[in-house]
């Protein structure tokens, strides 16, 4: 899979609006994403659960597995690596991940899309 990155960063919210280890949904350039703030950093993945098709990953359970920051789907409990989007329970299943950063106190996201 080839990924392309959009050139622009989109401001989503102030950093202090993100509670640690809780997800929030945001609309970025027409895409629904799930945004997470953990002790490992900021992470953005698509909000759509690839197993169920529902837009629920922002409501998932944040944790870690073997030192890897993760989110578990609130529906069927599949666990996804927040750094790469890969499902740790089902080989070959993944959710798209995006670049996230904090700049001047604002959380920004840059979408990555399949080419």
TrEMBL record:
SUPFAM superfamilies tied to this protein: ISP domain
Domain Rieske residues, every copy: 10-109
Keyword Iron-sulfur annotated: yes
CDD domains: Rieske_NirD
UniProt cross-references to Gene3D superfamilies, sorted A to Z: Rieske [2Fe-2S] iron-sulphur domain
Assigned keywords, A-Z: 2Fe-2S, Iron, Iron-sulfur, Metal-binding, Nitrate assimilation, Oxidoreductase
Superkingdom of the source species: Bacteria
Pfam family, one: Rieske_2
Protein name: Nitrite reductase small subunit NirD
Lineage: Bacteria, Bacillati, Actinomycetota, Actinomycetes, Micromonosporales
